[in-house]
Here is the input.
Amino acid sequence: MKISTGSRDLNEWLSGGYDKDIITTFYGPAGSGKTNLCLMAASYVASRGKKVVYIDTEGGFSTERLSQLITTDIMENIFLLKATNFSEQREAFNKLLDLIREDIGLIVVDSMVMLYRLELGQATQEKDEEKVQIINKSLVRQMRILSEIARKKQIPILVTDQVYSQFLSREDFEAGKPKSVVMVGGDIMRYWSKCIIELQNLGQNKKKAILRKHRSMPEKELAFIIHNHGISKEKRFRLFKK
Here is the structure.
């Protein structure tokens, strides 16, 4: 019921890898490793002869990075769909339904929310409440489609999410309370994602993964480094709380 993450250390941390019948969501700031984790899983699945559907909304898909992760040519096993606005993302999801077949081993959406965030921001600025509702309903529909594919077809889904910092009240600011990091898409993303992993930057290619939600595992952390061939557990440095 699981697929390999493409990393032995990450497999061990997740008790075998990514679950096949759910949506796994990575969220964190830019450069925290979200796309790397997606490409690692995609390269592993494609190298085993399965097809991968990869929806790229940020331009982060890199054939050069794939060639570092795996030496064999796997592009023939990857269906790459690109979107530059939220309308194109909706169209990509319409195409996704036509691509589902028995040899699909993984679906990746990187990122799920960037184009949604841009369109939602414009509608909010225009104070168009009806448009805001339509945009949110579209995101719900897309997440529901992914969830149904995962449950009915046993195809693992990986999506990435962005973050923003909440504004602090004057009292909290004066008290020195740190800003909390919030997932874009909020309750919509949390509801449909049955596994949620937060990624943090620690500097110099050092990252931290925090398992925030899982149906069978408790919250836990993993410190790791990104290198040419993937990621590895970092055992030589301590995590300091600021």
